[in-house]
Amino acid sequence: MKSKTLFVIAAIVVGGALMGAVSSLHPFGVPTAEGVAVDEHYLTHAGTDLSCENVVTSIVFDYRGFDTIGESSVLFTALLSVMMLFRKGGRKE
Amino acid sequence: MKKKSMRPLSVVARTACSMYGWFMMAFGAYVIVHGDVTPGGGFQGGSICATFLALMLIAHGSDYINEWLNDNFYKVCLFLGLFMFIGFGLMGLGWACDGTMMLNWATVPHDALATVKPWWPPSGTVALMDIAVGIEVTGGLSLILITMFRAVRLEGVVEDGLGKETGHDQR
What we know:
The complex is a heterodimer of chains A (about 90) and B (about 170). Chain A has about 90 residues and is an all-alpha fold. Helix content of chain A is about 65%, strand content about 0%. Chain A has 4 helices and no strands. Chain A has helices at about 1-20, 40-50, 55-65, 65-85. The relative contact order of chain A is 0.05. Chain B has one domain (about 10-150). Chain B has helices at about 10-35, 40-70, 70-95, 125-150. Chain B is elongated and about 60 Å long.
């Protein structure tokens, strides 16, 4: 009973903190809001800092490079599943 | 059980595909290598390079491809590209004490290009990772294609031979 009370108090405190943090999220559907606009940074810095004329490639392979690791592993996983599904010696004629 | 085979197309189609397939590989390599300065990139160029195997398979039939193709080449491509890609990312982690993963450690800023002429591409790891991902996508998509093709059991004996004007679009 005591632990349940503690749990309720902790849930209220943590939930209140999270609900308070909601107010400082950037507004939904406004990509050019103050302080959260990264597109202009990408567009202005990709050509000068990276000397990479293709901004899409600079985002895919540099700014969001960790995402591209995931894409590569998605391709690798697809290949693994295909080779596992269509493997040889599965049945006899 | 009668084995069916994917028969080759006619002589005209085979000759044309053999000629222009290599031009398509060159175009795919161009898209991969110039991914940082022109539209395209590793994924797109790798897809173009993987189309080469599909073209050869349709034009020449399965027997020629089974004789000619070595799977290990594409497997080496896949793992080489994957390890190159992750390796370039990890090099950014270790390059400086405050480095992060995927740090672009080889880039030369655009203003410094007037004085410094690097022998590597000035966009640094963007171009290198482009090449790595292009190699990986080439190997992966070609392996998926050849694995799924072999699984549908179209390989075997050619009944009609190579001389006549036969194709799998006829009959």
